[in-house]
Amino acid sequence: MERNFETVMIEQCAPVLASLKPAGLFRYETRDCADLARRVKNWNEQLQPKGLRVRVLKGCARTHQYLVYVYRESMLRAVLTDETVQGFLRQEGYHLPAERADCAAWLTQLSRRLCCSAEFPHEIGVFLGYPLSDVVGFIENSGRNFTCCGCWKAYGDPQAAQRHFAQLRKCTAVYLRLFHSGTPILRLAVAA
Questions:
Q1: Taken in order 152, 158, 160, 165, is the CA torsion positive or negative?
Q2: β partners of residue 25
Q3: What pTM does this model have?
Q4: What is the pLDDT, as a whole number, of residue 139?
Q5: How far apart are CA 153 and CA 148, in angstroms?
Q6: Chain Cα centroid distance, residue 176
Q7: Sign of the Cα pseudo-torsion (83, 108, 10, 192, in order)
Q8: Which of 14, 59, 117, 183 is geometrically suited to a Cys-Cys bond with 66, CB 3.0 to 4.6 A?
Q9: Which tens digits make up the pLDDT trace of 151-184?
Q10: 3-state secondary structure at position 66
Q11: Residue 62 has what pLDDT?
Q12: Are the beta carbons of 66 and 28 closer than 8 angstroms?
């Protein structure tokens, strides 16, 4: 069943629109690839002045499912230019782009891994703004031994993680309520 693109964007990316997180990801199902391309182009035109970008990272013609990535370029750039994050990504097999702050080059590498690898690239957590310690903890522990679980599995201070998860859940609930009462996404998106 195809779901409304905008509703799914709010459900999965409200904290990104609110500038609480650098990026979000959602699965969207459609048999109309041309419509999806138009939607992505349209959203990029509307959201770019607010510092947001929309990109399809992976698509499957057989299942008609697409992974749509919504991100704040400035926030993602801050994550990806962190030397510790870059060291981690190099360890995971990424190549540093000529321009280290080139988000598109990093995302192209992630997209290739999503499309071409038999294993799911768990380093995607870095691209979603998860703390590096949680991404590394997840990989090293194969998803076990976490201290708490919310929007992702956390491996550090459980109280701090729960507070952060609560903030993200509250943002999503408020944005969904506003969206369903008629507030358009463009008004909900905070300018960077």
A1: positive
A2: 69
A3: 0.94
A4: 97
A5: 6
A6: 18
A7: positive
A8: 59
A9: 999 999 999 999 999 999 999 999 999 999 999 9
A10: strand
A11: 84
A12: yes
